[in-house]
Amino acid sequence: MICEAHRGTVRRDFRSSHALTPSAVLPRWIYVPAALGALFVAVPLVAVAAKVDWPRFWSLISSPASLSALELSLRTAAASTALCLVLGVPMALVFARSDARVVRMTRPLILLPLVLPPVVGGIALLYAYGRLGLIGQYLNAAGIQIAFTTTAVVLAQTFVSLPFLIISLEGAARTAGVNYELVASTLGARPTTVWWRVSLPLLAPGLVSGAVLAFARSLGEFGATLTFAGSREGVTRTLPLEIYLQRESDADAAVALSLLLVVVAAVVVLGLGSRRLRAGGVNAW
Amino acid sequence: MTGVSVRAVVENRGVDLEFAVAASEVLAILGPNGAGKSTVLHVIAGLVRPDDGVVRVGDRVLTDTVSGTHVATHDRRVGLLMQDPLLFPHLSVAANVAFSPRSSRQDAARWLDEVDASELADRMPRQLSGGQAQRIALARALAAEPDVLLLDEPLAGLDVGVAAAMRKLLSRVLARDGRSAVLITHDLVDVLTLADTVLVIEDGRVVERGTTATVLTAPRSKFGARFAGVNLVAGTVGAAGVLTTAWGPVWHGIPGVDTVAGASGVALFSPTAVAVYRKAPHGSPRNTVEVTVAELDSLGSAIRVRAEEQPDGAPGLAADITAESASDMRLTPGDRVFFSVKAQEVSLLPSP
Questions:
Q1: Residues of the domain holding A276
Q2: Closest residue of chain A to B88, computed from CA coordinates
Q3: Which of B135, B170, B192, B238 could form a disulfide with B242, with the two C-beta atoms 3.0–4.6 Å apart?
Q4: B268, B314 Cβ separation under 8 angstroms
Q5: Is any Cβ of chain B less than 8 angstroms from the Cβ of A285?
């Protein structure tokens, strides 16, 4: 009882402890591996920037092939992020709220693409939605072709990005708990009303960070796209594919495009997401 | 005006009880932690499905395990106010109060006025103090026009002064609307100021039920006695004002009108009626027991001497003595002492 009565106070104390310096509790030697790790990530990025042929930079990235690849990348990444939200948000909430056996058993399967080599994902997609695939053969009979089209790019990107969105949102939903939803139902709100007016708004911060992760992952997608969608200029050749091709013919162009991809990804992650990525969940409100 | 009746068995929480709340009655549920108090509220609100039971509010059957009835929470018209106000953080105060489909902007304004919070209408929940947030949460619950209001320790998280103001507000709102309510609390003042009747639950069972006045002055259960701050000894009523405990000692007291010889009963007496001695006192009309001191507490000018738990697990007997006599006797926990009470100070009552 005492513990319950003081719950509010404890929370307040945690907040005020931000004024302390948490780094004081770290052993000093830990900064050495931490710095090594930071260098490991930062050095290659600097190396790319150093290698860029700056005087020709603009002309390199503004060639018609590059521009069309960039545009295709942004377009497909946006589409797959939208698809991830439509499919992933309900799935994340079901995973967070349901204790049913079938849900518990499905979860690892759905998250498998997280650890699967993207090429394998591409092959799997091909045998599902390709011309002779499990579902693709019926689609083909109905005159619908998916493999090696822009749609295939979007599907490939969604396949690999969906788990990122689900994991991020599911965590936020678990942290938030269901108390707000329960109170809303005692106030007479039907489950659908609660979903739109309470659950989703409360999860908005987690939603943003999940969408940013999914978009960034889609932007970098390579293996599954190449396998399932191929590399047709203007149709399925996204920026990562263009970079890989250019590396053979024009290394300078590949470097310039790589830097472009780094910048686009950085703008998305830093501009939209970094604050949300840190403070996911209901506490971000 | 609607009453509530509940019969519920929830096996995995060890709950098996039955009670009713009359229309416009406020029932306080008391009991140790884990006794099943919150589970009872969750059953009424439809958040927990009992394994066996019936819940009725007015003439509506909300839960009936025999016929398979289970009305969804949103259709029950049962309001719930918890220790955490749980205001929706993304909505303004006014939007929170107008949240219910049965509420509106006009209703919200009226209810905010009712809880003296009109000036907070445009604030966001994070800009409110704990007491303000709980007032808004009450307005939000009432704006949904519930038939019955469930209060799960709504004052527990508040500072003393703020809790007093909130208690006053609750008492005003409950008295004026004549709405039935079920209140879970650990606070004697809440019970005194808000409740008409008291239900004591121990281990998922109802052990005592009565008007607030009866339970606070003449409790029959261990928890009721500890809550009311009186000593309680359980035993068998004998002839002519005698109560024999299962472990030996006999208590003399004044029997109540409804005590029956041979039935189980309780002896009740106030801690202020108990005298403490180092050596067995002389004089016949007194009840004297030898006990071990468990702890000493300061009660303002007095010292409460709490003895170790009674052999049947009931709370240890308490004696209130002056600080002077406590220091004269140099009492410390672990000492063997004699507690002595005059027979006129002991009431003998039947157990429920």
A1: 56-284
A2: A180
A3: B238
A4: no
A5: yes
Q: Do domains B4-77+146-215 and B229-350 have the same CATH topology?
A: no
Mark the ranges of chain B whose per-residue pLDDT is less than 70: 1, 283-285, 352
Per the CB < 8 A criterion, the answer to whether B143 and B108 are in contact is yes
Q: pLDDT tens-digit profile of A61-91?
A: 888 888 999 999 999 999 999 999 999 999 9
Q: Can you tell me which residue has the tokens 């009725």?
A: B56
Residues with Cβ within 8 Å of residue B232, at least 6 apart in sequence = B219, B220, B221, B222, B224, B225, B266, B267, B268, B314, B315
Q: Which of A1, A7, A188 sits opposite B100 (nearest CB)?
A: A188
Domain count, chain A: 1
Q: What are the extents of the domains in chain B?
A: 4-77+146-215, 229-350
| A11 belongs to a structural domain | no
Residue A159 has pLDDT above 90, yes or no: yes
The burial class, CB within 10 Å (0-12 / 13-18 / 19+), for A66 is: buried
pLDDT of residue A20: 66
A1 close contact with B: CB closer than 8 A: yes
Instruction: Decide if A93 is inside a domain.
Output: yes
Closest CA to A193 of B190, B62, B102: B102
Beta bridge partners of A34: none
- Residue B116 to residues B113, B169, B202, B266: CA-CA distances in angstroms? 5, 9, 38, 46
CA B6 to chain CA centroid, Å, is: 18
Asked whether the whole model's pTM tops 0.80, one would answer no
pLDDT computed for residue B352 by the predictor? 61
Residue A21 lies in a domain: no
| Nearest residue in B to A203, CA atom | B90
List the structure tokens of A28: 């000093």
A/B interface, count of CB pairs below 8 Å: 76
pLDDT at position B264 is 83
Note the pLDDT of residue A272. 66
Distance (Å, whole) CA A153 – CA B175: 66
List the single residue in A with minimal CA-CA distance to B154: A5
What was the pLDDT predicted at A182? 94
DSSP letter for B117, please: -
Homologous superfamily of domain range B4-77+146-215: P-loop containing nucleotide triphosphate hydrolases (3.40.50.300)
Structural class in CATH, domain B229-350: mainly beta
Q: Using DSSP, state whether B272 is helix, strand or coil.
A: helix
Token pair 């943003």 is at which residue? Answer: A208
Q: Which own/partner contact pairs does B209-212 have at CB distance under 8 Å and 24+ positions apart?
A: B209/B19, B209/B352, B212/B28
Contact between B180 and B4 (Cβ < 8 Å): yes
Tokens for B189, please give them.
């003042």
For residues A232-237, give the mean pLDDT.
90
Q: Give chain B's contact residues with A (Cβ, < 8 Å).
A: 33, 45, 47, 72-80, 82-84, 86, 88-90, 99-103, 126, 130, 140-141, 144, 146, 153, 156-157, 186
